[in-house]
Each structure stands twice: as C-alpha cells, then as structure tokens.
Design a protein that fits this description.
Layout lengths: L2 H31 L1 H22 L3 H22 L14 H33 L6
Helix pairs in contact: 1-2, 1-4, 2-3, 3-4
C-alpha cells in the first residue's frame, strides 16, 4: 500500500468510526421514535466498523462499502430532514450529532472515493507495464 493510500485509509477509517459512533450514541433516542430507526442506527454502526477494519486491512471491497455507507447515511439524513421518515419526530438540520455525522460521512465518502481511484490507477499502471525479470 502506497503512503498516499495509507493516509487515505487512515482518514477513511477514522471518519467512518466517528460516523458510526455518533449513530451508536444516538441509537437509544431513535428507538423512542421508531424501533426500525434504532435498529438502522445500530446497523450503520456495525457496517462502519466492518468497512473501517477492511480498509485498514487493504480490502478493496471495504473501500466500496465505506463509500456506500457514507453516501447512504448522508442521503438518509437529508431525507429525514426534508420529507421525513415514518414514525420520526421532527428533526433539526443543525443539531450537533447531525453536523458531526454529516461532516465525518462527507470526509469518509471523499477519502474512500479517492482511495478507490488510486487503487484503480495503480492497478491499471501495473497491468500496462509488467515487470520484466532478468
């Protein structure tokens, strides 16, 4: 793993763990609104941990999973603040946990996409220029 990719892996993993931790902390309150919301927060926490660990272990699938969970979390945040979700009480756009989660998810999404692009570019270059042995 190149040093640039290592840095992106650390940033991605940390941002995913921050997002997951915010969801874990907020999960008990969301169970009060609707059970499925609380369960979805716990699932988001678990998936962010799996993705973060996989990224740090240099698994390509984990980079994609990290990007998907980050983008999906951002999307659900926007939906919950605009049209709302069934059983959910009104939510504010700028509550602290939402701002922290959205910021970490945006960082995670950007870092995972950059990591995937770097992995793809590195593999493309390796495939085009094979190493010759003497």
């Amino acid at each position: 793993m190149s040093s640039t990719l290592q840095r992106l892996a650390i940033v991605s993993a940390l941002a995913l763990v921050v997002s997951g931790t915010v969801h874990l902390v907020d999960a008990p309150d969301t169970f009060g609104d609707a059970t499925y919301l609380g369960l979805s927060f716990l699932l988001q926490f678990a998936v962010t941990l799996v993705a973060a660990a996989g990224i740090l272990l240099d698994s390509r699938w984990a980079w994609g999973l990290g990007a998907l969970v980050a983008l999906g979390s951002i999307g659900m945040y926007v939906i919950s603040r605009t049209v709302g979700l069934p059983g959910q009480s009104g939510e504010e756009w700028l509550e602290w946990s939402g701002v922290v989660a959205m910021t970490s998810e945006a960082v995670a999404f950007a870092a995972t996409i950059l990591g995937l692009r770097l992995i793809r570019a590195t593999r493309s270059v390796a495939a085009v220029s094979p190493v010759t042995q003497s």
